[in-house]
Task: structure prediction
Amino acid sequence: MNLLRSRLVQAALILIVSYLIFQFAIRPPAPFSVLSLYMGIVLLAVLVYVSSDSDSWRAFLRPMHATLVDPGKRALRLALMIVIPLLLGYYAYTQAAAKPQAPPELRAVHPAPPDTIQFRGKDFKIAGGDNPLRKDAAAIPKHVAAGGEIYVRNCMYCHGDNLDGKGHFAHGFNPPPANFQDPGTIAMLQEAFLFWRIAKGGPGLPKEATPWNSVMPAWEDRLTEEQIWQVIMYLYDATGQQPRRWETAHGAH
Ligand code: HEC
Result:
């Protein structure tokens, strides 16, 4: 019972019990930052309590003072001088030691397109394919305008009203929607590659694009062939990018 009278033991018990309550009784578990905040408040309260009058404060300090200077406590002093640095060292080690990590996901962002795809039941050549709507230069502004409408109706909420991949839903997806303003996306792709990606979406990605967790929808059943070419023209027009040509692409391969 004498031990329980000691201010130091009381303070330590309050701290331990409140830690156990915060850690195990609070559901859902509080994050570490909240936990340390609570413990800081409890520590403050305990310090206020033990220092409420000078007798109690002296009683609180006495055991610590005794441990530091009493000739009879040499053995305890020595033990503490070994144990405390060891504990600190162990803590530093656990913080600094390399932790096992899941390997990064290697995902081919721009996998090689298939040579041909099936678009609504008919064969559709991707390799060497060009946007047929570009042949009639006079009609281009009309197609770009139609593509803009298609974009706003179907693509904007993922790819963003600024075409920068920051649409309303974008933050919920990993991989994030493509940022068409980035020179690493449509500027380095042929229009036929885009056609394939838009028509077949995430579900149409080949094996090297694993894990197949892209939410890019397949538009094949919702947009016509012409509409897909139109939205592609809008993407290049609105971003000021130029589609990659097949000649340069062959040189690079
Ligand atoms: C539900 C969200 C969502 C919608 C809607 C959406 N996309 Fe995507 N899109 C994505 C995601 C995520 C990616 C990146 C992953 C990938 O490449 O599949 C992507 C990738 C793409 C790419 C490939 C770009 C590259 O660099 O390889 C193109 C092109 C594209 N989208 C066009 C469109 C068009 C056009 C529309 C509208 C008709 C559209 N997207 C609608 C989510 C979406």
About this structure: The CA atoms of residues 106 and 210 lie 8 Å apart. The two ends are 84 Å apart (CA to CA).
